[in-house]
Recover the amino acids of this structure.
């Protein structure tokens, strides 16, 4: 009769236990992420389609976060400072393009950066486009400053006027605006859907694959249990 290999059984059991704990933890984490993502989607959908409300003023700036305010449909009035416009590079369906961000000075003296939309590369120069003059009323979606770049994204170059992300703090600092909102507004599409800049380009979609990830990790946890069970069964059968 063969003896049972207890050291091997202990090692295999510990490895299986570690795998089971790890995969189960990942599955639970993905379930939690699923609930968070569903709540996010529902919150954003409700905000995007709601009637516009006044954009937050200085008294509310300190409390603005992605959870509390991003994608709210807002409205604000003022005068565009067209000479202070910045263009931010972005890939588009029609090729290289630029976001046109123009500061809007409100009656209280505060400044809000407004993303008026995309223009193709040949319309980057403001001289090639007509600028809005006089008092303006803007409606759009409140967006949080893009302070951090994405993987492989280029850094902003304020000294040379080259911008690659909508980092509102850096832009307003470079322009010397002392009383500027920490957010920006993605302007709605205008009356002319073929006009430039073309507003209403906010992508409001969130990939939600957390359920499939959770099932994958749970499946791996079950596979670990099955493999461990098969090993134990084989080991005990061998020693009968």
């Amino acid at each position: 009769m063969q003896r049972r290999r207890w050291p091997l059984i202990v090692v295999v059991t510990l490895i299986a236990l570690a795998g089971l704990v790890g995969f189960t933890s990942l599955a639970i984490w993905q379930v939690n992420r699923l609930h968070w993502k569903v709540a996010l989607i529902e919150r954003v959908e409700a905000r995007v389609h709601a009637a516009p409300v006044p954009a937050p003023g200085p008294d509310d700036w300190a409390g603005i976060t992605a959870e509390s305010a991003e994608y709210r449909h807002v409205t604000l009035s003022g005068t565009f400072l067209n000479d202070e416009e910045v263009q931010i590079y972005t890939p588009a369906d029609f090729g290289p393009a630029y976001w046109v961000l123009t500061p809007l000075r409100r009656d209280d003296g505060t400044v809000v950066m407004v993303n008026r939309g995309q223009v193709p590369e040949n319309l980057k120069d403001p001289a090639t486009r007509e600028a809005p003059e006089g008092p303006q009323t803007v409606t759009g979606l409140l967006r949080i400053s893009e302070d951090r770049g994405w993987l492989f994204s280029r850094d902003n170059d304020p000294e040379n006027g080259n911008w690659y992300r909508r980092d509102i703090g850096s832009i307003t600092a470079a322009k010397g605006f002392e009383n500027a909102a920490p957010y920006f507004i993605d302007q709605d599409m205008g009356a002319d859907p073929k006009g430039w800049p073309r507003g209403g380009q906010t992508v409001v979609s969130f990939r939600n694959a957390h359920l499939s990830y959770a099932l994958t990790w749970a499946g791996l946890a079950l596979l670990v249990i099955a493999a461990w069970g098969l090993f134990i069964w084989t080991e005990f059968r061998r020693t009968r």
